[in-house]
Amino acid sequence: MIKIFTGEDRVRAGREIERELGADYEVIEGIDLVESDLPSIFQGASLFEEKRRILIRDLSANKAVFEKISNYIETPHTVIILELKLDKRSAAYKDLKDKIEIREFKIAAHQNYGLVFDIYRMAKRDGQRAAEMLDKIKQDEDPIRFCGLLISQALKDYARNPVAKEKRVLKELSKLDLELKSTSYSPWLLVESFLLRVSSL
């Protein structure tokens, strides 16, 4: 079974992923995959269990591989593909929309929405200034949702300019997203650490 979860509300999507996959599942970064990886992901068994539970993140950024997903909809495994945004005009989306469940997790509009993107753009130039901007809004923000908005902007930047630096930023944001969901360490310190180093990635 394959499902696609899309949208910027990573908090709600994360809760639903845990409900569907449980607390212990494989996480695969979609941007790193090549077509030859797909048979082992969707058809290969694990040493520990016959039916695997897999989360694939941001696969649509890897267009050539994403277009092959329809070949694997009969997978015996439970696979959720997590996307911030799907291009509904793409051939891959049109091919999948009537074959698998696609759920959208929209985030409610709020006053800091645009400021989050300003902070991200500033971090690419001046991490210290971006961290100072963050201090002004973090009382009203959820760090996981904030990270989801950063990822949405990074995906747009990568789509416009698919260079190595933008890919490195996406990988770091994916790690940050995972850390925010799996650690008890101060979440805002993790976000600030990312903002401080993003200009040098």
Overview of the molecule:
With 201 residues, the protein is an alpha/beta fold. Helices cover 47% and strands 12% of the residues. The protein is built from 9 helices and 5 strands. It has helices at residues 10-21, 38-42, 63-66, 91-96, 113-123, 127-135, 143-160, 164-182, 187-197; strands spanning 2-6, 26-29, 53-57, 78-83, 101-104. The protein has a 5-stranded parallel β-sheet, with helices on one face. β2 (26-29), α2 and β3 (53-57) form a beta-alpha-beta unit. α5 (113-123) packs across α7 (143-160), α7 (143-160) packs antiparallel against α8 and α8 (164-182) runs antiparallel to α9. It starts with a strand and ends with a helix.
Structural class: alpha/beta
Instruction: Indicate the radius of gyration in whole angstroms.
Output: 17 Å
Q: Give the strand tally.
A: 5
Low-confidence stretches: none
Read across the widest sheet, the strand sequence of neighbours is 2-3-4-1-5
- Spatial gap, N to C terminus: 36 Å
What is the fold's blueprint, element by element?
Blueprint: E1 2-6, H1 10-21, E2 26-29, H2 38-42, E3 53-57, H3 63-66, E4 78-83, H4 91-96, E5 101-104, H5 113-123, H6 127-135, H7 143-160, H8 164-182, H9 187-197
